[in-house]
Amino acid sequence: MKCITPDWPAPERIKALSTSRLGGVSLGGYSSLNLANHVADNELSVAQNKSILVRKGRLPSQPIWLEQVHGTTVVELSGAVNSTVPIADASMTRSSNVVCAVMTADCLPILLCKKDGSAVAVIHAGWRGLLAGVIENTVLSLGQPQQILAWLGPAIGPGCFEVGSEVKNAFVEKTPNMQQAFQQSDEEHFLADLYALARITLLQCGVKRMYGGEHCTYNQSDQFYSYRRDGVTGRMASLIWLETES
């Protein structure tokens, strides 16, 4: 399994990783480490991929997956057994060995942690969630934004994500300086920079220490799934947890 380990000055007890598409058993458009059950991949292959993730990622427990709906709900996870999948686009925890996780295939995964190692969070940030306020809600849930570190995982790059003028106008209406995150491609379309939109939002929330944001899922087909590029495709995962303090 090939994955990305965030390059950020997080406390030692904070562990995190973002998977690539490499190192699993799925075939075809889902090749090879697809972690999503909601696509048309073989269920046994997905189960085996999830087992590979837990084993090779050295996870302390099974990830707590979310039913992602491009919304703004943040769920706090305690580790208590619950058979219901939370409907949310971000999760956080202050408990040890609880693995927060989101899946993406172009949308932006964002990992957050407190500098003192007391809490972590993960965000699924597509443009709809970004616009609606999923980052703001998650930072508010963690508290003390000046104590938060952020890492931006693999997402579709600024030269590949074309949106309509209505999307650009909605962001600029919300925050005028988001204009800088859009480049006009024709009369009615713009290239949107998810990384820039996230950084502007984090700064507005008071989060100043940001890392990552150098990948492009669309262009790097050997490493990443991309829904916009392929249509039928798998999903990667970004995960974060707190190790038990020794």
CATH topology: CNF1/YfiH-like putative cysteine hydrolases
Task: Measure the end-to-end span.
Answer: 28 Å
CATH architecture: 4-Layer Sandwich
Main beta-sheet annotation: 6 strands, mixed
Give the tally of structural domains: 1
Instruction: Give the fraction of residues assigned to helices.
Output: 10-25%
CATH superfamily membership: CNF1/YfiH-like putative cysteine hydrolases
Alpha-carbon Rg, integer: 17 Å
CATH class: Alpha Beta
Global outline: globular
Task: Tell me the number of strands.
Answer: 13
- Give me the strand/helix succession: EEHEEEEEHHEEHEEHEHE
How does this model look, in words?
It is built from six helices and 13 strands. The chain has 246 residues and is of the alpha+beta class. It has one domain: CNF1/YfiH-like putative cysteine hydrolases (4-Layer Sandwich), CATH 3.60.140.10. The strands form three sheets. Strands 3-4-7-6-8-12 form a six-stranded mixed β-sheet. A hairpin with a 5-residue loop joins strand 6 and strand 7. The chain is globular. The longest helix is centred in the first third of the chain and has 14 residues, at 43-56. The model has no long low-confidence stretch (mean pLDDT 96). It has helices at 43-56, 127-132, 134-142, 165-174, 194-205, 227-230, and strands at 3-4, 14-19, 74-77, 90-93, 100-104, 108-114, 120-125, 148-152, 162-164, 182-184, 189-192, 209-212, 236-242.
